[in-house]
Structure prediction request, 367 residues.
Amino acid sequence: MGSFFNVWPFAHSSICRTLKSYISRFYRSLFFMVLPVLMILMSLFLGFPAMAEKLPIIFHKKYDISFWGLEKFHPFDSKKYGKVYRYLTNHVGLQPEQFYTPARVTNADLLIVHTQDYLDSLNSSSTIARIAEVGVLSWVPNSWLQSAVLEPMRLATGGTVLGAQLALENGWAINLAGGYHHAKRESGDGFCFFADIPLAINKLWQQNPDLKVMVVDLDAHQGNGTESIIQDDPRVAIFDVYNSFIYPQDMDAKQYIRFDYPVRSGIADAQYLQLLDDHLARAIDEFQPNLIIYNAGTDIFEHDKLGQMKISAQGIIKRDAFVFGCARARSISILMVLSGGYTMQSAEIIGKSIENLLKNVLKVVGQ
Ligand SMILES: [Zn+2]
Prediction:
């Protein structure tokens, strides 16, 4: 096809070539100017965070615990953390660069909430085996357990510390691990090595000693480690709903629960959610915390043999949305940690629940 420039007397003249090159350069620069604007407009209309904006969600690829297949002897899915992360990247569309990566917690920090004797005791494989509830680990060299078990725990604890700071800065944060609420000052227990929640609170107090924190512990088990470390510090109020017919039945720690809701085995969605509806908002309004640390254990799930409760997957999603909704309605910062719940369905339930929070409660991700 001919064009205006191919028509005599312009064809092949130098004026024609110069004009052609100007026009093609003009269109090229126009294209590169318009493209970013188009991308931003598209991301706004489609609801994706523009340019993969960072979200206060914390994950490390070493969160998962693997001891060369020995984890198969354990009733827990010790790889749920990576599965939740992959749900968020594969199904929700989050990009790897949108997550925060935690630093491992230092010994100096751990000594804020633990004794030196306890930390020294972790140099014995039998101590680690007892806390992890995997007897055969007693026979594994301690140096291996340090990297396979304690390294993920140190990172996850660092994740809760980082999450508490991010929650205060952003209004919310989620650590895709943490919630080791059975760890006490001088001992670990029930798969909990380091008291990440009391440590995160103490780290915040180094900057702001007056900060008030409410721990909302909705894992199926009583959060006796957190309670025994925090004790009756007036800057913290613990709201604990737990099955009082299962481990740990810690009567000494129970005295430190300010809002204490023991429930029975077999409790189902309607009664459980009603209990939260009746009491959580009232407790928050009474204590007026600056930060809520939400220990969102999923062992309340109906097929979790350890928790022995009968809450459906949908019930867990409603619970998480309710807790976040209570915090957001009052402009109180909230950090969620995953805590217990290691059935093979747990990771998917957590992934769906976080998806619901991001889309429908926090509204930081499009529908
Ligand atoms: Zn639990």
Q: What stands out?
A: Residues 219-221, 297, 299, 340 surround zinc ion (CB under 6 Å). Residues 212 and 290 are 5 Å apart (CA to CA). The chain has two domains: 4-46, 57-361. Residues 4-46 form one domain.
